[in-house]
Design goal:
This protein is mostly helical and 124 residues long. It folds into 2 domains: 55 residues, no CATH class; 37 residues. The protein contains 4 helices and no strands. The chain is rod-shaped and about 120 Å long. 0% of the residues are buried.
Amino acid sequence: MAGCGKHGPARIATVLALAGTAMPAAAQPYERMGMWHGELGWGHMAAGGLVMLLFWGGLIALVVLLVRAFSGGGTRDANARPPGASALDVLEERFARGEIDQQEFAERRRVLLAGRAEGWRKAR
């Protein structure tokens, strides 16, 4: 071997052997610490993972709530009626969708209008 000095490979083998026996002595303080985890063991890693999940879950929930708040609160049902829809409006919608025929529409409309007129007379 070139550049090994006067003892050559034997000296390199001795140095490596001494380095190998010195390693466990150098690692002893870390073994007493539980492989670099101190006295906490693996518990701090589990707690850290849980905190990370809580953080990201909370952040995602916050974003979803903000988007819903600024977009009008979500989707509306297609069959939802406006708050002030009258019974006559509902009857007209059902007739337009074909749920009732013309005869049933006319009869129910007559009953609704008669009830409305009667209620108007009682209010006076």
